[in-house]
Specification:
Layout (H helix, E strand, L loop, with lengths): L6 H14 L3 E6 L4 E3 L11 H14 L3 H6 L2 E4 L4 H17 L13 E3 L3 H12 L13 H7 L2 E6 L1 H6 L3 H9 L11 H15 L3 H10 L8 H11 L6 H10 L10 H9 L10 H12 L4 E2 L2 E2 L4 H8 L5 H19 L4 H20 L14 H16 L21 H8 L8 E3 L8 E7 L2 E6 L7 E6 L8 E2 L10 H5 L7 H23 L6 E4 L4 E4 L9 E3 L3 E4 L10 E3 L2 E4 L23 E3 L7 E8 L2 E8 L10 E3 L1 H11 L11 E4 L2 E5 L5 H7 L1 H6 L9 H14 E3 L16 H4 L4 E3 L3 E5 L5 E5 L9 E3 L2 H11 L3 H5 L9 H16 L1 H7 L3 E8 L2 E6 L12 E4 L5 E5 L13 E6 L20 H6 L2 H12 L7 H34 L1
Parallel strand pairs: 2-4, 3-5, 19-22
Antiparallel strand pairs: 1-5, 3-4, 6-7, 8-9, 8-12, 9-10, 10-11, 13-14, 15-21, 16-18, 17-18, 20-21, 23-24, 24-29, 25-26, 27-28, 28-29, 30-31, 31-32, 32-33, 33-34
Length: 977
Amino acid sequence: MESDDGVNVKITKLTKIFLDSGLARHEVVSPSLVLCHPSNRGGSMLNGHDVVQKGEVLMKQGVRQDLLEASSVAFCLSKQEEKRKSQVNANKLLASHHPDLLAPPSGAERYLSVGSSHSTAYMRAMLSGILPETHLSKKDGPLKTCLHTGWRWLIIEDLVEEEFPSMPLLLASGLNSTNSVQVSQSEIEVLMTIGRYVSLHGMSVQQAKDKCLEAEPTCKDYIDVLAHFAARYGGGEGFPLLEFLGAFGKVYGASRVLGSVFMKAVTYCDFKVEGNLLPCLRVALLAAQITSPKAVDKVAQLLFKSDIEKLKNFKNKGPLVEAENLLKGCWDTVQAANVDAKQRMQAYGRCSVRVALFLCQKEKEGREGQEMGSLAEISKAFGMELLGMSSGPASSSTDSAPVVENMLTASFTDVVLKQHKHLHVGGSFVHKDHGTKIFVMVGVEDDKVVFQHQSLLGEPMRVQVPASAELGNWKKTKRVQPVVLDAVKASGYTVSASRMQAEAFELGQAQLELYREFIAKHDDKKDISFVTPPSGLLVTAPIRKGALSLVAFGQLTIVKEPSKVKDGVWVGTYLLQGPKVVSDFEKLDDKSLLVPFWYVRATNEKELVNMTFVHKELGSLKVPSYLNRRDLAPGELLYCASDSLIAKIKTRDHGLGLVIPSDLVLEHEGKKYLKLVGSHYWLCKLVCPEAYKRTKNITLANTAAMKELLEAVLAGFLTKENEEQEELFEKKPGDKKGMKRKRSILLTTNVKSITLPDDTIAEFCLENHQTSCPAVLIENSSLEAVLGYLQGACEECSGATRAYSKTGKFKKKCCILIDMLMACRTECRIIHGPWRHSGRSLNNCPVLCKSWHEDDPDPTPAWLFRLRGSPWWVVASSVVEEDDWSGVEVLASIEGDFLPQGRVYVPWDKWEAEAILPVWSQGLCQAIVEIFQGFSTVAWANEASYLGQIQRLEARVQLLKDEKTQLELLVEQLFLD
């Protein structure tokens, strides 16, 4: 279905699949047993005039049974009763559009055609007597055989359509392609096909267009125009305007070709009507064109591009707007009218054609040849026609003919209401005998019309009036009876119950709190000055790092559609919009307001950035603000990073983007958090990318910024029983008694918003304060606050080494581990990390190819494949298929069905101490042990060397296990120190 093969090749392959699987068969079928599939030609099914036109050509040229059989494909009628009824009803409706051209269903049909539909319909009409049989049909020959015996069809089971609903549409489009014997699709049919693919099969417009192109329609050169028209002017969901065009086009002769010039003019013309694309008028122009009485080579000759240009150049756009409003109103009317679909289509179609020809001044050249004096007259004619249709069943003559009604069997209520047309149930009426009281007609009981008046406090008053001339004294009024609102219902609309008033009150409280907090702490900034042009802020005195905080202030508003907001910042659920930035200080007046936050400039130059966007707590509000992350000198202008710079920095400094290692990700209640493991190489690289490049054994764990951050987070989470919380961190570094003293510490919650030492706010998660480290929420504001705070430690961590480097014993253990791992470096580098399927297979197993990290200095070629008749997998420099191992370097062998899993990056090119901790933290060491024990990874050599390697590896594995246990205990102790 999704291959690049041509549509006819696809159909051939599908046919073979269906036949081989028993879902299709070849069968000789008479045309009397075949109806048209509802999906044929995009849902338009057939045009009766096209059927007759092709049939006449077929009779003149003679029937070739082999050509008929080449494209005769049909589906079985559905076995589901409801769907089968809808399929048959679609054919009944089609026949009702052309009662003199097409035969209605007889009830004996069993199949639905998607190919040879026109030829079959013509022969059905001949068999039913609607069209006369020719002398050829009475002589022995192909035509007589086809009529009475039939020809060979490809019959597809209805199960195929149930599983693949778009299959009939695909086959129908393909069988109408240019190398078939069918009538080619018109532009209207292509429009309908696009609409069907989108609305019924969930495709995009582009996908639907591509599907239509597979059938090679004659309009393929400008199918983009048709796709644009369908998407914009098709009427939205379900494409009702396209369905209207398809149904309306069947009424007026054979299918007309609209042509590329006309379609482009109608689709792309800018009528220059402000705020109105005139969709209904464009559809009306197409409707008028397909009713053209004149055609040259099937191309309609009623309207031309010049007519569209005249409408475009109207100086007074009033008639265009009036016409569009008229057509929209008529469309709404016919959708609600109590008439069948055919009558609705005809009424709206005639109205559309009249409007289009009236505007183009070509009414005399249309099929009616009648001039309408104005759009109002067209509207009146539409109303009269629709009124005649709505009165009852349509007669066989004209739409305005009287309608016959059977008054003999009519009920008393119907007769009374027809005699007194002003009466209707639910209407309000007054009577001179009852003063100003208003009555409502409630119905007819016992041959009497009942009126009821409801007083405000008393019981209702009912009046029964016999069917007589007295009913004429009950006058209709526009006034209505007073109604008392139920007290319970009224209580839901009081001020205290109003959510709108509550929101307004809460907004006012938030605005008041923002005002009080701002003027108390952040209104007067003495070390900066406003400058212009351009508007900005100038540092006038030295400012230490973190001392300058510029908080946003402005007007809080409630926004119903946040996605449409283009400026301002968010304070919780409120939008905060600042005052207008002053660009000329000479224009300052009593309405001006200077808030420094709005004067920080955005820049694309990283070196100029000295302010970071954070959130600060002002009372109960979390308000956006800017904070200086470094010392500021007099004469500096204040800059923040622009959005494009932030994206550029992330891409350049962290080439893979913010792809966090799985061991640093903590998931809690559907949210993801980043663990703040200061010794993790990835976190160090993220916070201090430049220092990471030039510093060996870099770590954030021992920096003052990390310690202060963790203390603040733990203090925010933990409370103690029988002690004040402030005492938790009063212990001096040398006080060992404090470590031994038992404390009862309570973790009140796992998630909390914490105020950092620089007054910024971030959300953290802490599962267990004894066994886990804090983790910050992975979202912009929290990450920027934490990472911005830690970036101040870059200078400090440049000279820092890991805590364990001061312990000689631990350093010795690391050297032992390094020696052990160096011995199996090749095997580890090959086996671990990502593998991908090469697209090849060998010995009934996939061949995998090693994918190296982009930073790896030595990407050794590696292929993993299974040996013939053996449980062994081999990792080699190339794939060996014919047992020719000459020139092949074998890197490792693995016994069993184990394949490398996961996608973990380890700096294998760095075998110093800093590579060990990431290996342990990512769980790779245990994976190495499992491979050594379970799969006997060894160098491929002679048997003696093979056995010797196994013994040495088993000894190293046991040593590795012992050292792993000691190393974990030592790291835990060092972390506590």
